[in-house]
Amino acid sequence: MTADRLDRSRVSELAADIDADFAQRIDFLLEIDKLKTVIRRSRITDDSRLENTAEHSWHLALVATVMADRADGDVDVTRAIEMLLVHDIVEIDAGDTFAYDAAGHEDKRDREVAAADRIFSLAPPTVGERLRALWDEYEEGVTPTAAFAYACDRLQPLLLNAATRGRSWQEHGIRQQQVRDLNAPIGQSSADAWRFVQSIIDAAVAAGALAPE
Fold this sequence. Notes:
By secondary structure, the protein is mainly alpha-helical. The protein has twelve helices and two strands, in the order ααββαααααααααα.
């Protein structure tokens, strides 16, 4: 007698017993679990290891929750959280492109669009189309909510770098003007946050954690 198995394919089979739509939702949820395997360049605040992209997305959702009422514009915080939870799902296929990697950014858009086409199509249309619309809005960055979400995505790694003595900046030879330029969009969403960012950069340079020009 063959022992009953329990694995991903068996989970899919059990979901299919409900109906096809339910099974597609479960398969999509299992697929996006792969985001936990994508490693970023930022280190977690105790400096023990690099963070993964799923952790990054969770942290961003909380950044948006905590900082929404400090934004200068009219922000839909629920929509911002949804954007931040889906915007990096494409890294399952495209990988994480380091913010300061000029060569990696040359084909980043093409890689990520192809990933979005594949991954969001795995969900039922009613789900996949809504998630893709959130992803597209974030990428276009036109709405105040998308701009705020992007600002959160810039602020979070800056906080991790500052909390770990600028280790990632130092490992990659990053200089202060690069950090100022990358994080400038924060100022479009929150003047207070932008003043804070500039003080962090100044403190990092003074402490030798970030190279001056």
